[in-house]
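Lecture notes, unit on protein representations.

Consider one protein chain, 495 amino acids long.
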Amino acid sequence: MSQCTLIGILDEGWSELGERARDRILHAGLIIGAARTLDLVRPHVAADARLLDMDGALAQVPEWTRSALAAGQSVVILATGDPFCHGLAPWLIGKLEASHVKHDIETLPAPSTLQQAFARWKKPWQDVRIASCHSKDADEWTFGAPPAHGLYPLMQAIAQHRRVFTFTGPENDPSRLARALMTAGFGAARLSVACRLGLPDETLYHELPPEKAATMRFPYPNVVLVERAAETGSPAFGLDDLDYLQRAPEKGLITKQEARALSLAKLALRPDAIVWDIGAGSGSVGLEAARLCRHGHVFAIEKNAADADIIRQNHDAFGVANYTLVHDRAPSGMEAWPDPDAVFVGGSGGELPELIRLILRRLRPGGHLVMNFVTLENLATALETLKVLAEDAGKTAEDAEKPAADAASAARTESQTSPVHESALAPSPSAAEASGVIPAIHPALRSATGTLHWDVLQLQAARSKPILHMNRLAAENPVWLVSACWQQTSPDSPA
């Protein structure tokens, strides 16, 4: 009876295999593996057995297996160590099941490379996060690299966990990883490297500093353990203003702690949220958002060169890998960003109406826009733009172009009383689109009905300041927080 067996094998080869694994290899009609693993068993296979090299041909392995089983042959597939530990087992089993292969797949793992490495280093491994960069050449890590970068999952894991074990690749080697750590602000980390485990030229390195490892050459194959010092326990939310570097002419150019905390709360961030930070300033809002959205990503833009440099320094201090900074004037380059779940506007550079239109067109269903203003003029502009955008969705171009009577006066009144506003949103802005008006709604919302909700909050904090050896409350200038979101309504929902 034909059978399929996935066998884990180490570089010690045949001598380290169990009796069951040896028997499966001896009676296999087809043996599939990388050239290195095939060489380990080649002297022990049946004379009429076929050996197929899967290097560069991994996608063909399921069909090779299916065809051999259909012909009544037993199949052995060789993998390194434990095939379920960042190995090919889950992928292969899924492919064979999708091809309706009716044979059970037996798995006979060897001790994993991870187990071997930690035994050699004499370190426990029950608390490590396992990652991998054993993939195509990812290129060097750069400041603010986006999620598409090949090292991104690994760098995210390092930012989130104190101990990370990773399988490397020929190009994505320990020296590249060391350089990435220094670029990402993890220069105090230490790397332990295990090279060519189980072979006569096995080489071990213990707790190398990144600056040393970055210039070394390591024999391949190898694996790496990255260890960082224990976290200091700094909060992810509500950091003190003094925790951030700031450009300070007369006062620090930073979203103050009170406004920052309320703004982050109004953004309603999920762990996997995509966040835009426009007019990033010192980076305080975006960097705290990155700490809160550990499985998401923050895209920030800042036009001032001095502020952009300060953001980079703050980024290095807080150890986040899910943050990309663009030094430019919004909205330049933002068309390449993924649609956001949350957007914070701390500065608009005189482009506020255009930015609000762009944001609400791209904001995902259920997403939130939060804007901070310190002038009534910008507040009035924002509220007028929100009203017009909501009306544009259900009007023709002619209707949309009609000026709102007393809009500026009404906005000033609204900012003082801070009421909640609602405007009806039609199911489809097809008329506005046909007339050249920029659509106001994310495409996912165009088949539904909903409402554009927004509210205005005036925040006037008072801080205790020492004067003549006494303390008194000194009022800060007011800040207006405007938050807006599309709220989708199901057609079946009661009115």
